[in-house]
């Protein structure tokens, strides 16, 4: 009989002005408690192509630091712009920000589609982000989709050129061929996949081809509001509708995330709470 996992980590969540930053905060806190999460990784939307209400780069970093300091159970993913070249001042600021807050920062987030930039071709800041990932042992989560900027093939190219850095393909490849994406990943040791918008039936396929150690739970919450995790694809995974082996479900829902994003057991909690 299936036994429920001890912990659940949502390794792909956001904050942004939808409709306000505060409402997003409330949605994430509700989601954390209502769906019995143990830890979440949060980035602040730094889209370079939409919404004039988006916080500026440095402001977004200060905001996510404040949010993660007010509550336990929250880790930071630094959403980093690809299209706009960072200034020398911004680079220095980011280096010091990571040094000072290393215990809260678990990775870097890149979004080729919202930056309208391919990471293997036109991304002006990629050498700098790769150097940060290397220096501070940070994995890089990359939005992947079938559009012209975000194909998983572009990420695979970068991952192969940087075997000492861990990369995570968000969504495997949104609106793409999920099985193909999983097959391609099998032979790239430093490339992992998250489950945001991935039908859990494909987890069985991942089990079949032996890449369960590469699968990390993420939801894109709160893209559909506070009840994003009510989506059947997430509920089916939580309730193990597809009869995934217990040891594999543990890996998907928290163990793989702990390894790749350097999350400690002491970071995991039963309910989100203010950090006094």
Distance between the termini: 40 Å
Average pLDDT number? 94
Rg estimate, integer Å: 17 Å
Fraction of helical residues: 25-40%
Separate helix tally = 10
The SSE order reads: EHEHEHEHHEHEHEHEHH
The fraction of residues in strands falls at 15-25%
Net shape = globular
Which blocks of ≥5 consecutive residues have pLDDT under 50? none
Q: Strands of the biggest beta sheet: in what spatial order? A: 1-2-3-4-5-6-7-8
Largest sheet: 8 strands, parallel
Commentary on this structure:
- Helices cover 38% and strands 16% of the residues.
- The model has no long low-confidence stretch (mean pLDDT 94).
- It has an eight-stranded parallel sheet with strand order 1-2-3-4-5-6-7-8.
- Helix 7 packs parallel to helix 8 (201-209).
- With 276 residues, it is of the alpha/beta class.
Fold topology:
Elements: E1 9-15, H1 21-34, E2 39-44, H2 57-70, E3 74-79, H3 88-100, E4 105-110, H4 112-115, H5 126-136, E5 140-145, H6 152-161, E6 167-174, H7 178-186, E7 191-194, H8 201-209, E8 215-216, H9 232-238, H10 246-260
Parallel strand pairs: 1-2, 2-3, 3-4, 4-5, 5-6, 6-7, 7-8
